[in-house]
Specification:
Blueprint: H1 4-13, H2 22-90, E1 94-99, E2 104-107, H3 109-119, H4 138-149, E3 154-161, E4 167-178, E5 184-193, H5 195-245, H6 249-281, E6 288-291, H7 292-302, H8 304-309, E7 313-317, E8 323-326, H9 328-344, E9 353-361, E10 364-371, H10 378-381, H11 403-413, E11 416-423, E12 427-435
Parallel strand pairs: 7-9
Antiparallel strand pairs: 1-2, 1-5, 3-4, 4-5, 6-8, 9-10, 10-12, 11-12
Helix pairs in contact: 5-6, 6-11, 9-11
Amino acid sequence: MLNKLLQRQIHKHLGGEEDLPENFKTLLKIISESYDHYDKDRKMLERSIDLSSIEMIELNNQLRKDILELKEAKNKIEKSEANLQTIFNNTKTSYILLDSECRIQSFNPVANLWAVNSLDAHLAEGKFWWNYFPDKLHKELKEKGRIILNGNTIKEVVRFQQIDNSTGYYEMVASPVVNNERKVLGICISFNDTTERILTELEREKMTSDIIQRNKNLEQFSYIVSHNLRAPVANIIGLSLAIQDSDNEDTKNDLLDGLYFSTLKLDEVILDLTNILQVKHEINERKETISFSHVSNDIYLSIKKQLKMSNAMVRWDFSEVDKMQTFKSYLQSIFYNLISNSVKYRQPNIAPLIEIKSHKINNKIQLLFRDNCMGIDLQKNGDQIFGLYKRFHNKEAEGKGLGLFMVKTQVEAIGGKISVKSEVNKGTEFEIEFEL
């Protein structure tokens, strides 16, 4: 069947469809069907174009909306970054950001100032973090970096020797930097200067320790007054009364000899107390750089004859640290007393072996004096070993029991601590520790 438009044209120009030849009708039918298909495709195309136009408008509107939102988000991010950068640059806390290889990515001005004061170097982006520290610390710092990059946080108080030779304390927190997917991207290290607080705490601890020590000293001096001073004074009083009552010249002379001896004992105790008080309260010399090896050699030469007579061997090793700032006379006295004590209290038929070593541990100097001599029963006498007039080998050697008391007093007077390990018939080890 022909479409309506083709039918109208045939009626207008040819009269009627029924008068046409069959082959012409077939042609017209093909033309009509082709036109119908074309008309249908055209309408579908027009509808498609209309729909596409609407979608394009909607898409365009959505795109404009997305662009506006992106711009707004970008502005917020830029503002947030500016705020963070302002805080980053003006905070009192030092911040150093490292990448996943522990290279420095960024740092704030306070961190660079800290590096200058504590490490004597300026921070630089791209450098490995551990390169700012001595080689012996690299292994430890790399291990800590590995721990942090595995998602752990490290908090500790670290101590640095400043370029002005003062000591600085910092509370360090090293944390992993992670994204929303919890992937570790790097490390954030922060340093807070806690020097004032730490020094105040240390001063408080020192004051408490000093008060405790002073109380112990008072107890010890009370003991000295009540025993060591009272005995010769009582003798002097008794002898004086006896002299007054005696009419026999020979008896008086004996009593006078006893009075003289008691007076000497009293003078000896007073002299000891005077020396102790001078050590505790008077340091009249200046600190200077003292070599442990020089002090050891000087003492070795001064008691060489005594060492030779006892077949004693003295060995020292100060390769790790050989010098410190201190008072020379005090250090010499400490070394002399400990070395000579080892010789004095040697085991029978065993040649004394005295070893002295130094170590540097956590910003502290450690001195070890070790021997193979008689040793001391610490379970029995441990709390008296540094006591005044305390002796533990009365039969084996002469002495007043003043040496170790003076050693401890002098060690503490120059800011150190002393402790002891000992076993009977095996030997003794004294450990002295000084802050750098």
